[in-house]
Design goal:
The complex is a heterodimer of chains A (109) and B (112). Chain A has 109 residues and is mainly beta. Chain A has no helices and eleven strands. The radius of gyration of chain A is 13 Å and the shape is globular. The mean pLDDT of chain A is 92. Classes of the chains: A mainly beta (109), B mainly beta (112). Chains A and B meet through strand 5, strand 9 and strand 10 of A and strand 4, strand 5 and strand 9 of B.
Chain lengths: 109, 112
């Protein structure tokens, strides 16, 4: 079993749609959690951190459920510019981070 | 701001050749990591370091060596290139704790 598993996707949605991505992790000792965005095989860039209390940044909301070892990302009012691959990342401590395989989102006009 | 710099950006190797991928960061980050990304997959951890003189293996370390003689530099050495090592390689750095990782622009390596 992979340490971090994401919805395989791809997700194809119209502009304005709400879309949700899910991610599960297997190591209960995981310390911190993030969503990264990656465009066209460029380098990943931080989208947002994920906290148990929830974290909202404009149209994006991230949530962590430690009991279920589950992370989510909600995108509201999707824009064409949101088309990308979204990577779930778990920091295990001591410098080690594990990435999910990513979920590809395509937003269509 | 240079951030994380990787060189070269592109490389073609013949099977059996060796080479070093360079990674340098100017943010004084203690943690540095190397990942490879194959088509349709996420990033897999090759090796990582929590400080100068300290390195450890990640998920896919075979065929690669690293060293960390300074805080700034973390080179990745391919000992004897194989076609299975054709991939995009990313270097990243961050500070300890629950912090964001910063990535270089990647090295696209093809082994023929």
């Amino acid at each position: 079993r992979k340490e971090v598993e994401q919805d395989p996707g791809p997700f194809n949605v119209p502009e304005g749609a709400t879309v949700a991505f899910n991610c599960t992790y297997s190591n209960s000792a995981s310390q911190s959690f993030f969503w990264y965005r990656q465009d066209c095989r460029k380098e990943p860039k931080l989208l947002m951190s994920v906290y148990s209390s929830g974290n909202e940044d404009g149209r994006f909301t991230a949530q962590l459920n430690r009991a279920s070892q589950y992370i989510s990302l909600l995108i509201r009012d999707s824009k064409l510019s949101d088309s990308a691959t979204y990577l779930c990342v778990v920091n295990l401590g001591a410098g080690k981070s594990t990435f999910g395989d990513g979920t590809t989102l395509t937003v269509k006009p | 701001n240079a951030g994380v710099t990787q060189t070269p950006k592109f490389q073609v190797l013949k099977t059996g050749q060796s080479m070093t991928l360079q990674c340098a960061q100017d943010m004084n980050h203690e943690y540095m990591s190397w990942y490879r990304q194959d088509p349709g997959m996420g990033l897999r951890l090759i090796h990582y370091s929590v400080g100068a003189g300290i390195t450890d293996q990640g998920e896919v370390p075979n065929g690669y060596n690293v060293s960390r003689s300074t805080t700034e530099d973390f080179p990745l050495r391919l000992l004897s290139a194989a076609p299975s090592q054709t991939s995009v390689y990313f270097c990243a750095s961050r500070t300890p704790g629950n912090t964001e990782a910063f990535f270089g622009q990647g090295t696209r390596l093809t082994v023929v």
